UniProtKB/TrEMBL annotation:
Entry's localization field: Membrane
Principal location listed in the UniProt entry: membrane
Record-linked InterPro entries: Marvel (IPR008253), MARVEL-CKLF_proteins (IPR050578)
The protein, known as: CKLF-like MARVEL transmembrane domain-containing protein 3
GO CC entries: membrane
Keyword field: Membrane, Transmembrane, Transmembrane helix
Amino acid sequence: VLSFIIFICYIASLADSFMTAPLLEFVLALFLFFAYATKLNEKFKGLYWPLTDFLRCVTAAIIYFAISIAAVSKYNDGASKAAGVFGFIATIVYAIDFYITFNDLVTFLKQGSSDSPEGRKSEDEDSDSDSD
């Protein structure tokens, strides 16, 4: 929702060249929301969904921060200033989401490392020695 508000502010401002970033972020957020809502992430196991969400959050925070600084410092109209302020708020929101997603990503990667062949091989050797 915040990306859509920023997109509308950039359309109404003199800084309309910055409208692409919030629009793309809005579309990506909708896609990931749709994927998680329809359990698409469980059907496509080859794609690391937590990593995709992590990269989206990191790039969004960096891009929103950069274009917000440019919008606030370069343009003097009210819509550009509003888009910049909302952009700074979005930067904070994406940074928080980045932190939460990072913790989920670490848990996901630790879970994947316990399913590695080396882990299973040592468990099989332990069970073979126990049966002797």
